[in-house]
Amino acid sequence: MEGKEAESNRSNRLSVPARELLTFSTPRDPAQLAAFINRRVLNPEHQHRRRGIEAATIYNRLHGDLPLPFTYRVPGRDDQEAEGEGWPASLAGFPLGQWTAGARRFYARGAMDADRIAQLEKLGMIWSHFDVAWEEGLSAARGWAAENGHLLAPLDATFQGAAVGIWLKNARAAARKAAAIEKRRADGLPVPSLAGALPEERRERLEEIDPSGCPTWPVEWQRAFHLTRQHLEADGALPTGPGDVVRQGEDLGRWVRAQRLGWDKLTTVQQWMLEQVLGITPASEEEKPRPRRTQADKWALNYAAAKKYYERERHLRVPRQHVERSVLGGEDGEGGADQEERELRLGAWISNQRSRVATLTPERVELLSAIGMRWT
């Protein structure tokens, strides 16, 4: 019984094609059988290579190509993924990522025969490390997009440990360089080096994931636009104020408000997208906040209060704690809803002007002197 059990265990460690080849009740290809004996009996030192080819073949069948992370290992025996995808127990835990990286090193040194090169290329092998990095980045970007519904990832976005946000930022920069080169070529201008420009084939593969993934304006704007459109399609109500709706860390109400208030700073295409797709319109004059006062405005406001105090008191010896009330707005002194009453700390302001006389402009010194300012 023990002998039969041991024989059964050895049989289970064989791959399905190997078990079929050694089943004497079925027809066998003599050439295939000879190759099997050469690999397994005459040249056992190539077992690691054989397992790599077998693992690469299965991986290619499952995924359609061979680019994969350096840390990738074949799923273990107890892994449901291995059972569902048809991985044989004999390959459990095989370091396929390291194996493919080693094959690239052999290829780079010119130490790989033509037959093996052709065999690996048929399985989708990519020899360039730069190309591998691109494929790994694209795979991570595709996974991130599948989870989030778009390819407008923030800079700090990651997917299974891969820095997707940074990779996409670099890809967009390369795409913009390619577009700039194409424009120069169309205008009949000299074309600089193509180094760093994104090839057309790669740009198309990115657009297959998300056609809007490389906008001409900031990607943050496009991401908020996309999330707002998703929200409208789901709920039908446009967020209008900060904190109304937050999606993937984006405050959509705050973004909508910023677009309405900053309408004139947007491109014509952005304005069209906001109006026609999201139904957002520019803010009216009544909705726009009053412009912030500049330092010059504040100085003029305090000077007017000082002049008013001088005309009333006939001097400018203002106590430091004195607060002067001033009414702003309105026309010709008439009241109105647009008027605003403010309290100005006139005493402290006068004291500050006196201590900073060396930094005041001659014009300001002259204005204050004319209403009784004493500088010492």
TrEMBL record:
<dbReference type="InterPro" id="IPR005114">
    <property type="entry name" value="Helicase_assoc"/>
</dbReference>
<feature type="domain" description="Helicase-associated">
    <location>
        <begin position="51"/>
        <end position="125"/>
    </location>
</feature>
<dbReference type="Pfam" id="PF03457">
    <property type="entry name" value="HA"/>
</dbReference>
<protein>
    <submittedName>
        <fullName>Helicase associated domain-containing protein</fullName>
    </submittedName>
</protein>
<feature type="domain" description="Helicase-associated">
    <location>
        <begin position="296"/>
        <end position="373"/>
    </location>
</feature>
<feature type="domain" description="Helicase-associated">
    <location>
        <begin position="131"/>
        <end position="210"/>
    </location>
</feature>
